[in-house]
Each structure stands twice: as structure tokens, then as C-alpha cells.
Amino acid sequence: MASYKAPLRDMRFVLFELMDGDELASLPGYEEFTRDLIDPILEEAAKLCEEVLHPLNRTGDEEGCTLENGVVRTPKGFPEAYRLFREGGWTSIACDPAYGGQGLPKAVDTLIVEMICSANLSFSLYPGLTAGAYVSLSNYGSDELKQTYLPKMVEGVWSGAMCLTEPQCGTDLGLLRTRAIPEADGSYKITGAKIFISAGEHDLTENIIYLVLARLPDAPKGIKGISLFLVPKYLVKDDSSLGPRNGVACGAIEHKMGIKASATCVMNFDEAKGWLVGEPHKGMRAMFAMMNAERLAVGMQGLGVAEASYQGAVAYARERLQGRSLSGAKHPDKPADPIIVHPDVRRMLLTQRAYAEGCRALAAWAAKNLDLQQRHPDPEARKEAEDFVALVTPVIKALLTDLGSEAANLGMQVLGGHGYIREHGMEQYVRDCRIAQIYEGTNGVQALDLVGRKLPADAGRLLRRFFHPVSAYIEAKTQQNDKALAEFVQPLGKAFVRLQQATAQVARAGLRNPEEAGAAATDYLRLFGLTALAYLWTRMAEISLAKTEADDPDGFYAAKVATARFYMQRLLPQTSALFSAIMAGGASMMAFEEAAF
Amino acid sequence: MASYKAPLRDMRFVLFELMDGDELASLPGYEEFTRDLIDPILEEAAKLCEEVLHPLNRTGDEEGCTLENGVVRTPKGFPEAYRLFREGGWTSIACDPAYGGQGLPKAVDTLIVEMICSANLSFSLYPGLTAGAYVSLSNYGSDELKQTYLPKMVEGVWSGAMCLTEPQCGTDLGLLRTRAIPEADGSYKITGAKIFISAGEHDLTENIIYLVLARLPDAPKGIKGISLFLVPKYLVKDDSSLGPRNGVACGAIEHKMGIKASATCVMNFDEAKGWLVGEPHKGMRAMFAMMNAERLAVGMQGLGVAEASYQGAVAYARERLQGRSLSGAKHPDKPADPIIVHPDVRRMLLTQRAYAEGCRALAAWAAKNLDLQQRHPDPEARKEAEDFVALVTPVIKALLTDLGSEAANLGMQVLGGHGYIREHGMEQYVRDCRIAQIYEGTNGVQALDLVGRKLPADAGRLLRRFFHPVSAYIEAKTQQNDKALAEFVQPLGKAFVRLQQATAQVARAGLRNPEEAGAAATDYLRLFGLTALAYLWTRMAEISLAKTEADDPDGFYAAKVATARFYMQRLLPQTSALFSAIMAGGASMMAFEEAAF
């Protein structure tokens, strides 16, 4: 099976050199998070992921989850691994100390989430869903709800699950039917069927806290009549001990392409007792707080799998002897050369690498802004950071999962037939990663969010949080006329011009006809994302070019420059195709007769 | 589960209108294959695929194959389906009447192969491997071997399997170790282990005929010391009845990502009795005869899955009500509009469609040339056709399977979460199709074949078989100045110029340094393939534009023009990115330090 080592060297580079992570400790509340503290945390997380979670990845896939009499069993080893995870404090790292959390900056937490996703994507969903529920509850729950539920969720003895989808409604939550009837004691009776509920039922925690979207009797139709409720699997007594079972049960688990060790449940609510979270009919707001956090987390799933698949492919490409280098045998003493000598194998490996490292940088940029948004003393700076996060959230969700799937497929291809059989675990990465392009809003929905909401918002205010720094950087570097950097700045500049022109086109055409924006959305998001990676690759190249040979005993910075070069020369050209497709407009798809499909 | 209807209307268009299939009957030996005969054959094949093979597709995936005491059982229903398949004469359609075949033109057979692959990819491998063995044996076997084995293989009561790969050798067959020791009676004792043997063992036929690559004792090292042997599972007596079991057995079956109903076997040969096929040490030649036929067949697998996935996605997109059209409710009477109203859903469906129909045209072009190569009275014309087939074989194998996987992924994405669960069968298409990018030479190997062998062959002679007709067509249409056709001819012309320039670059740089050709190979093959589709889409548009409304009661031709337009505007622009990546050269990948990966 492919092994996994957390890419700590690159994570430190991104956090401290690219994103200036030492600044974190200057933010109020983050004083203790200096490099001295962060480094060992990352190392401990790496150890757990490499030694506990990753060894269960393939066995978990083979065994899957089972449902018997309403009880879901996770695969062998999962309960024990979760216990170690919880006891190590990993459920609480990013949570508020007020509820027992460790208050770790998002910029650090994000790196740990990546490691967990690399090591075992199925496992990551159990704490991941709790983290999502934590966000909704901590932002919108009443003090009583927060005091009752959050400490146990933060500690990890209780977990969370989000109950949105129903058979007739996925993307369009306005169609949902689950009902909530108010009771005299201020609680509600919740009734309805929810599907595709990750971590809906399992054997890892003592209790499961469901956040459920439902309609009150007086609810307006559609999306504006949806409220959010907290429904515990076991009712909780005043002393925090568990009371009787609530009216919620798992009716079935789905058989899926991948993430088989993650239980995807049909959850039936039958007059289950619940409590309102936030205001009546304003459930979507509380849900979106969770959803935005989850979308970034799902992006990390794509990145995590890309990294893991890259590592598996490199290991195989170094070992597999097959054929000779086109420029003459590299290892004439061996029966053949390792396949890593072949240009086409290197193309695949470098594509994986350039995507993984570029996406890590983009995720770190967003994560740092999450910290600024929460902690910066200047409200203006907080607002700017919030805008930036809002803008890039759909990009990170869709781009990182699209590229993650591409990377996983390339990794499998490097192994040839050995990648297609289950033994090496490379095909599992493809299957596991594939869901990330779908859940928490399909990538098409992310693209519509970008072009339909984020671009037009406040006359492009959000967009400027990205366009201004990139534009200023290109201008500054062009003026400096740094010869060594020119090979990066020039293609970045070209891609950025394409992005600007496409933005103008999408805004103009979309204003006239929203279907034009819709037709451009997916290509536009990718153009945006690849340009963002080009900006980050240029900055990473700049940092690395400034290093002397003495600074670079292990060749880390030289490899960074080389990967940046590959990205610019071989991957960034995609932006020209995306630009042409966007500029062609949407008539060719909208004019197609429905009956003719 | 997604249902499947053979796209007979489009197949007839491609065969008779685009490829002038009526010409077939003018070829010696094909006199009877007029449209009157071909039409009912296609209809019968469609019926079998829709009603017998497709219903077993998902159950076959769920159940998979099992191995017990060396016996492989195919899933429930497979033996009965195979019996119907055989009794219907479908194993013999493309075979020589001299051995009981029906001698159907390849141009027709190819369409039937597509249907079988759409309906049940796993099933297709059993007759598919026999067809491959038939090609090697009928071209290189002695008369005695041919008389003994071919009639039963053609009849389908015996099947074939190709035994190439060993644990230490896949792409690089020069490393193979299986030994063949000559016996006094003119036979050989074959000993060695083969892996990844599709249809290596199963319960569909009475006997299995293995074609095995092995080394004779006096064999030169490497690829020039490999011979081909025929090894039957049961030895055959003089009266054609089965004798004792030969020394070959299935040691294990692989657990794979997909094609689970196809048994992928480890085959152990232990002093198995075999006979030489062709000359000693010239096994690769006989193997390549099979391999080229198989590569085209594997291309059809990609196309078949693309078509099936398209159909499944369209059906869902018509039925699934979710959200409202961006231009206002299309079905205000319903709770929501069907998702087919959304531009991004249409983008996915039209991409699938444009790829499937374009690839069908390309496959038909190759298939017709196979017929010309075999049947044309003029040797010059036969040679031209042979050149064309040699040139496009790697393109068809790689392009059709790459686009097949892309299409299958898009089809799954249209269904969202419902595509990721197994129920609808859409994720199975993704898993099944994925192997087609790998086996019979990975797509990277196909690309190297194109740039390393086919391009330079005889100073570009092969290439001219494609470049000349395309160039002449563009010139003629540009001169005619057909206003309606200009929107197709112009982008085709631009893509073709890119292809010509990239060809010159690859040839020039590759001559200096073969690694440059290797670095360009994958992008070049795709550029070639997308340009070929652009040529065919332009010709299909031309035919369709010439039709009046009266000619087009069902809107078939109008949809053809609309799909051609979508292809030109939204998909063909990829060629600009591929061109830039190719022109950037391979230094960025070859300079990367091996230790730095």
C-alpha cells in the first residue's frame, strides 16, 4: 500500500515563509502561537496521521461500514483510532477555549486538516462534521444550547452531523419538507427523512448532535421558510448525562463509489425532540456559516488526496524498473531504468506536485485571512479579510477538489495496471476524492456562487481583495525588472489580463442575461483558480530564488523554482483555452433544443 | 439504473452519410453488405445489448467474479447471456467465412462493438479477447493451428486470452521470463507466471486458448528474443474433442476498481504444452497484429461508456426537478424546473455528446480504412488505408478512452450525490472506463507510439494520410466561401495550423533530443485528436446544413449542427493550451532533480 509522510517541510514554507506565519502571534488571542509551539503540534499531528490513521485507510475501504438493527459499525480499528484522536486533543484544536478548545489559528488547523484528509479521508469526515456543526452552533445557538452541547463536542465524546438533503431536494433546499412542530416547553417535534447524512450514525461517540433543517408550521414557502434545529441522538439530562433515545434512527446506509469507511446515512426523524438554533425561518444563514467552513474543509480533502496520491506515485516511479531512458540507460547495471526517467511520467508527477503545492499555498492564504477576519484589531482589516474569504471559498472548494481528482487520476495512471487493482491503494484515492467535487454544493454550484453572488457583490468589492494585491504585485515586479523572476511574472501577467477581461465579459453579459454568467461559470472559476495559483507560484519562486546554495542544502528551494517553472510552462496555458471558451458565450448551449438531447 | 438505447440513428448517419457506407458493397467480398442487410444486423445487435447485456451490467458489478479451487465463476446471468450471444452468431460476425465467420465489414462491426461496450463493458472483454487472439492466430498461425482452433473460437464455444504481462514486466516486455522448451514432437513446454490476464479463466466456454509470450532457450535478450505460443486450457484431440487438462491454472483473480465482472487472472503455466505461432523470436510481430486490433477495440470501450453515461445523465437531467431556470421558471406548474434548464448542466451534457458523437465519427473513419486496407482492389489504396490506420490507432486508443473517462465523470457529476452512490450505475461507468486508459498500452505509451514511431515513419508518410485530406478540405471550403460553414471551417483551420506547427516542433526537437518528443507526446496526441474531431464535426455540420426542414422531421440534423457549434466554441479551444504547452518544450520536466521529487 502507498505510504504517507506529512509534507512538513512544505507546510512550514507555506506557513512561515509565504504567508508570514510569525505574524499570527501578533494577533490578539494568538500570542502563544509562535513557531516554537506550532512546529511540535504539526509534528505530533503528522505522527498520528502517518501511524494511526493512514494504516486504516485501505482496510477501512475494504471493510466499509455495516448497518444492523439501526446500529452502524465503522471498520475495524476506527473506534480505537478515534479514541486516540480524541485523547490527543485533535477534536478540540480549532475550537474556542471557552468550550474547552485550544484556539489554534486556522492557518495551522488547515494544515492539520490536510494531513488527516491525506491519511484517511473517510475518517476525516467524523471529526469534520462535528467541526461543521460546531461552527453553526457556536455562531447561532443560544447560550443554553452552547453550554449544553459544545463542551462535549469539542472534547469529541459527542459528534455532530448536518441534516440538509432530502430525497426530493439537494441543491434546491427550498423544496424541503421536514416539519418542526412547536411544543409547550419551547422545544420542537421534528419529523421527516434526510438522506446522504455523513456521520449520521456510527460507533465512535456516545452521542450524536444533529443540526436539522426543517419547516415551522407558519413557514413561508421556499428557502425563506427554513429553520435550523438541534436534535440529539440521546436526550441530555441536566447533569449532562445521557437520557433516553430521541426519535431519530438510521434507516439505511448508502453503497458508494468511495469513502466507504464513512457512514452515509438515511436518517429518519419521527417526532424527535429538537431545539431551534438561531431565529425562525433564518435557518439558511446558520447553515451557511457551517457550509462555508465545510467548503474550505472539502477543498482540503481534494488537496489531501492530491498530496497522498503524489507520494504514492513517486514511490512507485522510483522503484518500478521498466524500459530505458530515451537519452540512454541511466542504470545500465539494472535490468531497466526506473520509470521516473521518462518524460511522460515526470509530466504526471510534476502536474500532481504543482497542483498540490499550489493549492496548499492558496488554502493557506485563505486560512490566514480567516485568522485576520477573527482576530485583527482593525475592523477594516477584518472586513477585508472576510471579503477575501467569501470570494475564494467557492474557488477553493471547486478548484482544489477538481485538481485533487485530476491528481489522483494521474497518480493512478503512473502505476498503470498496478494502479487499477486495489492493492496499492491508488484507485481508492480516485474513488474517495471524487465525492469532494459533489458534496457541500457541487462544483457547478460553487462556480455559480462565484459568478452569480461573489463577483457582483457590492460592485465588485470582494473581487478587489484579490485583484488589487495581484495587480500591484505584477506591476511592482514588472517595474523592478527582475530578470530571474521575469519567466514567472510574464505568464502570470498574461493570465491575469485574461482573467480581468473574462471578468468584465461575465459581468457585462451576465447582467443582460444571467444564463450567460451560468454558461461561463465553471470555466471562469477554473481560470480564476489557475491564475491565483500562478500568483502564488510566482511569489514562491521569488522567495526561493532569493536563497543561496548554502541556504538550500536539501534542494528544497531549487525544486520550488523548478516546479513553478513547470506550472507556468505546462499547466498555466490552460487559461488561454478557458478564456476562449468563456468569450464564446453561452448561446451554443442554451439554444440546444431540450428534446434533442 | 440508467437505461441504454443503442444510438442507431447516429450510427447510420456516421456510416452511411459521413463515411459513405454504401461504398462498402463495392469492395470485393463485401457485395452482400448493402444497407438492406446492415440495418437489420444493427437492430438485432441493439436488441441484444439493450435487453440481455445491459440488464446484467450493474448486477455483474455488484457480484463480481469468484475463484474457488482454480475455477472462476462469472456473475449470475453471464453464462446464459454468453450462450445467447454465441447462438446469435455475434462471436463470428467479423471473422473470416473460411472459419465459419460472417465476414462483416469492420465499419459495421465497430458499431456493434461500441454497443456491447456501452451495454456491459465487463462482458465485452470475453468475446473481445477471443477476437484479439483470432487476429494473431489467423495472421500468424500455421494452417494446422488455424484449422484446429479457429472454427471453435469463431463459433464461440472456445474463447481466447492474451498472456503478455508478468509481475516484473508490463510496458517493457523485453524483461519477460516465461520459458518455452522445445519438445521432440514439435510442441513446447511453457513455464512461467502471467498477470493481469483478462478472461484468463471463466465459465463461459468449454476451452480457453491462450496466446502466450515466452522465451526459447536460444533466445536473444530483450524484446528480440520473444516468441508467441498457443496453449490450450484443455488439449485438443484429433477429432476436435477435448482431451486432458493442460498445465495451466488460474492462481488468483485481481480485485479492481471496476470491470468487476471481467475476470482478471494470475495464470500459472507449469510445463504447459504449447505450439509456436509464427517464427521463433518474432512473437512481438504477431502480438502487435492483435494489439493494434485491440487498441481500436479499447478505444470503442471509451466511446461506449461515454455514450451510455450521456444517456444516463440526460435521463436524470430531464426528470430531476431542482431549482428554477435563471431566465425564469420554465415549468411554473411544477415544484421546480428539471435541471436540464441550467447552463452548467447543459455544458456537461453537451460535452459528453460532442465527445461521443465526434469519437464515433473518428472510429468509423478508421474502421472504414480497415475495410479498404483489406478489400480494396488497388494496392496503392490498400497501402494508404493501412498507413491511415497505423497513424490513428494510438490516437483512437488514447483519445477515446481519455474523453470516455471525462464524459463518464461528467455524467456522474450531473447526478450529484445520486451519481456517487451505486444505485444509478453512473459511478460504475467511471470505474469501468478507467481501465481503458491503462491496458493495451497506457495512454502515455500510445502518445509515444504516435510521436516516436508514427510521425517519423518514412519521412512523415503516415502523417500525410491525415494531413492531406484535412488540408485539402479546409482549402476547398475556404475557397467556396460558404457563409454558413465558416463558423466551423475557421476554428478548424486555426486548430490545424496549431497541429502543423506543433508537429514541426515535435519532429525538429525530437530529432535532436528524443526526450523532447516524449515530453510533448501526451499533449500532442490530444491536440491531434481534438483537431481530427474538429475536421469530422465540420464535415458533419456541412452534411447537416444541406438538409432542409422537410429532411429533418425529428431535428436530428439541427442537433448535429448545434453540437458541432458547441464543440467548436467550447471544446476546441483546448488546442490553444495544448499548443502552448508543447511549444514550451520539455526542459521544465527533465531538469527536475530526481531526488527532489
From TrEMBL, chains A, B:
Give the Pfam families listed for this entry. Acyl-CoA_dh_1, Acyl-CoA_dh_C, Acyl-CoA_dh_M, Acyl-CoA_dh_N
E.C. number(s) listed in UniProt: 1.3.99.41
Keyword Flavoprotein assigned to the entry: answer is: yes
Q: Which InterPro entries match?
A: Acyl-CoA_dh-like_C_dom, Acyl-CoA_Oxase/DH_mid-dom, Acyl-CoA_Oxase/DH_mid-dom_sf, AcylCo_DH-like_C, AcylCo_DH/oxidase_C, AcylCoA_DH/ox_N, AcylCoA_DH/ox_N_sf, AcylCoA_DH/oxidase_NM_dom_sf
Stretches assigned to the Acetyl-CoA dehydrogenase-like C-terminal domain: 467-592
Instruction: Report whether DNA-binding shows up as a keyword of the record.
Output: no
Q: Which residues form the Acyl-CoA dehydrogenase/oxidase N-terminal domain?
A: 42-156
| The protein's required cofactors | FAD
Query: What exactly does this protein do?
Result: Involved in the assimilation of dimethylsulphoniopropionate (DMSP), an important compound in the fixation of carbon in marine phytoplankton, by mediating the conversion of 3-(methylthio)propanoyl-CoA (MMPA-CoA) to 3-(methylthio)acryloyl-CoA (MTA-CoA).
Q: Which family does it belong to?
A: Belongs to the acyl-CoA dehydrogenase family.
The name this protein carries in UniProt is: 3-methylmercaptopropionyl-CoA dehydrogenase
Record lineage: Bacteria, Pseudomonadati, Pseudomonadota, Alphaproteobacteria, Hyphomicrobiales
